[in-house]
Structure formats: structure tokens, C-alpha cells
TrEMBL record:
Residues 1-27 form the signal peptide. This is FAS1 domain-containing protein. One of its GO terms (biological process) is plant-type secondary cell wall biogenesis. Keywords: Cell membrane, Glycoprotein, GPI-anchor, Lipoprotein, Membrane, Proteoglycan, Signal. It is a lipid-anchor; GPI-anchor. It comes from Malus domestica. May be a cell surface adhesion protein. GO terms for cellular component: plasma membrane; side of membrane. It is found in: Cell membrane. InterPro entries: FAS1_dom_sf, FAS1_domain, FLA_A. Residues 42-54, 206-215 have a biased composition (Pro residues).
């Protein structure tokens, strides 16, 4: 019964909406018409006109280079691609991208990328971006740690050193090097790196937070509850959680040497 009563009311509402929409559209008609013939209207460009140069499109360059599908997907999903696009629209801004190819991403520990939060993905990408245009000669004169767009050289330290023609990069967790130039135009440089640069701020082996000295009140409470919660049990549980992430951290680096070292333990 209730449903049947709502039905006409609903239809009536639709009708009202429809009618008011029609009258609005009709009302706009005369006003909209002169606008198209206005002398101020910008003439449509001829169909064969070349596209305006516009800012440099990083994902387009990487697409053209090929083999950077995972990096491109990350740039798009974090919307850093459009951020870079508007950044490069300012001719005063310079940028160097250290671009890991798909093979570098596939060397990461399985799932390590998926386990990152959205903001960690943003930080990871910004860590691969240096707000300067760097030529290969510039690498020799960089002072370490290098300033990346992830900021904070403490959690996101990045050292770049050169030896001969080699440009070596160290995050503290990963040692890698530059394997080629993808793009360079005086404002933007893109270099291929052999590994994903894993910053401390995201991939550091987890260490337990320093336990603050318990307040007297806490101490009392602990003593009171000690009969219910044996301290020994808690402590023995804390030992493995201290060690396991450390081992994971080393493995996640994917360094064969580190893996070999563990197998000797
Ligand atoms: C940049 O290029 C990519 C790939 O060609 C395209 O999908 C994207 O829309 C472009 N971005 C802008 C802001 O034009
Ligand atoms: C680039 O910057 C100019 C001037 O600030 C602005 O008018 C233009 O819309 C921008 N273009 C893009 C594609 O962001
Ligand atoms: C750079 O890395 C190579 C191996 O990739 C190594 O032989 C060389 O010693 C490194 N140089 C520096 C300055 O770290
Ligand atoms: C980076 O270089 C600085 C300064 O030379 C040094 O103190 C630091 O230990 C280096 N860090 C790494 C991860 O190589
Ligand atoms: C990176 O290289 C430095 C010295 O070149 C070495 O001390 C460190 O253990 C290496 N780190 C990794 C993760 O391989």
C-alpha cells in the first residue's frame, strides 16, 4: 500500500524536475545564441595546426622510451604526473628524474610496492626527483646528501658519487648506479637507474620505539597487574619482533651479498 502511494508522488516529482529543466533550457536559448556569434569569440584553430609546444610531459617521454610501465602507472596513480607537468610549465623550474625501469621494480621484494600507503608511494616517487637539472658532469660536483623532492635528508638521504664514468647512488639501503640517459633538454633530465631507490624513511628495518622511562604511576599499575600479565611472556615476545623486520629489510634490498650472508647465519 505504501509503495503504491509513493509511486505517483515520485512520478510527479520527476515531472516537475523535467519541466523546470525544460523551461531553464528554453530560457537559456536566446541568451546562449548570440554568444556563438560574438565578435570576441576565439576562432577555432585550423584542424592541421601543430599543437602548441606546452610543458614537457614526463609520462609521454617515458612511454616513448619504453620499459617504464610500472613507473608510469605509479606517476599516474599518485597524480605526480600532472604535478610535474605544471612544475615544468614554469620555465624557471628544473628537474632530474632517476627512473627505475620495470626490471628494477620486479627486483623488489614481492608485495613491497603494494604494501605502501598512498602517501608513501608519493614519497617514494619524490625521492627519485631532484629539483635541479643535472648533467652527467654535474654529478661529479654534487654535495651529499642530495636534496630530493621528498625533502628531509635525514629520512630520505640520497648520496650520489662518481668514479670514472660511473655514477653511483646510495640510499643507505640500496647501492645502484645510473645506466643511461633517457632524456635531457636543459630543464628536465631523465636518467635510468638500475634499482628502485629505497629510502630509509619508508624501507628502513623497523626498530622498536625507544621505551620511555615508565612514570611512577605506570610502574604502580604494572606491579598491580603483574599477576595477570607475566612480564616474562611479554618480553620473550618482544625479542623476535625486534629481529624479524631487520632480516626482512635486508632481503627487501635484494642484494645478493646480503642474502648470502644470511644463509651463513
Ligand atoms: C602526457 O602524456 C600522456 C601519454 O601520452 C597522456 O596520457 C597525458 O594525458 C599527458 N598529460 C598531459 C597533462 O597532457
Ligand atoms: C602554463 O602557465 C601559464 C602561465 O602561468 C598558464 O597560462 C597556462 O595555462 C599553463 N599551462 C598549463 C598547460 O598548465
Ligand atoms: C660504483 O659502483 C661500482 C659497481 O657498481 C663499484 O665498482 C665502484 O667502486 C663504485 N664507486 C664508488 C665511488 O662508490
Ligand atoms: C652520504 O654522504 C654523507 C656525507 O658524505 C655521509 O655522511 C653519509 O654517511 C652518506 N650516506 C650514505 C647512505 O652513503
Ligand atoms: C653500499 O656500499 C657501501 C660502500 O660502498 C657498503 O658499505 C654498503 O654495505 C653497501 N650497501 C648495500 C646495501 O649493499
Amino acid at each position: 500500500m505504501m509503495k503504491q502511494q509513493y509511486q505517483p508522488l515520485f512520478s510527479l516529482t520527476l515531472l516537475v524536475i523535467f519541466l523546470s529543466h525544460c523551461t531553464k533550457t528554453l530560457g537559456q536559448g536566446p541568451a546562449a545564441a548570440p554568444a556563438t556569434t560574438s565578435p570576441a569569440a576565439v576562432p577555432a584553430p585550423p584542424a592541421d595546426a601543430p599543437a602548441p609546444p606546452g610543458p614537457t610531459n614526463v609520462t609521454k617521454i617515458l612511454e616513448k622510451a619504453g620499459g617504464f610501465n610500472i613507473l608510469i602507472r605509479l606517476l599516474k596513480s599518485t597524480q605526480i604526473d600532472s604535478q610535474l607537468y605544471s612544475q615544468l610549465n614554469n620555465s624557471n623550474s628544473e628537474l632530474t628524474l632517476l627512473a627505475p625501469p620495470d626490471s628494477a621494480f620486479s627486483n623488489l621484494k614481492t608485495g613491497s610496492l603494494n604494501s605502501l600507503t598512498d602517501s608513501q608511494k608519493v614519497q617514494l616517487l619524490q625521492y627519485h626527483l631532484i629539483p635541479d637539472f643535472l648533467t652527467t658532469q654535474n654529478f661529479q660536483t654534487l654535495s651529499n646528501p642530495v636534496n630530493t623532492q621528498a625533502g628531509d635528508g635525514f629520512e630520505y638521504p640520497l648520496n650520489i658519487t662518481t668514479s670514472g664514468n660511473a655514477v653511483n647512488i646510495s640510499t643507505g639501503l640500496v647501492n645502484t648506479s645510473i645506466s643511461g640517459t633517457v632524456y635531457s633538454d636543459g630543464q628536465l633530465a631523465i636518467y635510468q637507474v638500475n634499482s628502485v631507490l629505497q629510502p630509509y624513511g619508508i624501507f628502513a628495518p623497523k626498530t622498536p620505539p625507544p621505551s620511555p622511562a615508565p612514570s611512577p604511576a605506570e610502574e604502580k599499575r604494572k606491579k598491580k597487574s603483574s599477576s595477570h600479565e607475566p612480564v616474562a611472556e611479554v618480553k620473550s615476545g618482544a625479542v623476535p619482533t625486534l629481529n624479524i623486520p631487520k632480516i626482512n629489510g635486508i632481503v627487501s634490498i635484494g642484494v645478493a651479498l646480503a642474502a648470502a650472508a644470511i644463509s651463513f647465519l
